[in-house]
Design goal:
By secondary structure, the chain is mainly α. Helices cover 62% and strands 0% of the residues. It has two domains: 106 residues, Orthogonal Bundle (434 Repressor (Amino-terminal Domain)), CATH 1.10.260; 39 residues, no CATH class. Helix 1 packs parallel to helix 5 and helix 2 crosses helix 3. One of its GO terms (molecular function) is DNA binding.
Length: 146
């Protein structure tokens, strides 16, 4: 990571690094862990996207490079299934972050099971479940959900 060098990561490099690493952490097939840099580079090439190397991805992820080309950013956005504006627009990045959080939650089999069971419950029944969830959150000392 960047802390291995003596120079701090620039704010631009940090933002890019954090956003790219979040995609690596969350966007991958559900039956396995995150892609490696080499896998992403190979899969991007196989899909006809802009060519990047695993080393270049590592540099972006660690903040050693902070000025990728628009073509590279567009290709990475396409690969990970996010809008290209994710890299530049903080509102788009926040909306995408919420969608990534939902994807992450849906990988939890218990959460998925609850959602599937709720799919045919009435609106009043769903409200009752939300009340129960709020009660459990309060009991566990968690803040109220939004």
């Amino acid at each position: 990571m960047k802390e291995l060098t003596k120079e701090p990561m620039s704010p631009r490099a940090r933002k890019l690094s954090e956003r790219l690493n979040r995609l690596f952490d969350v966007v991958h097939p559900p039956d396995r862990g995150p892609y490696s840099n080499a896998e992403v580079a190979e899969l991007m090439a196989a899909r006809g996207l802009e060519t990047v190397t695993s080393t270049y991805l590592w540099m972006l992820r660690t903040g050693r490079r902070d000025n990728p080309t628009m073509r590279h950013l567009e290709a990475l956005a396409t690969f990970f299934g996010v809008p290209a504006a994710y890299w530049f627009d903080d509102e788009v990045a926040e909306k995408t972050a919420q969608e990534l959080k939902l994807l992450e939650l849906l990988r939890d089999s218990k959460i998925k099971n609850v959602l599937l069971r709720l799919s045919d419950v009435s609106a009043d029944g769903k409200d009752a479940v939300l009340g129960l969830v709020d009660g459990v959150r309060k009991m566990e000392g968690l803040p109220p959900s939004n």
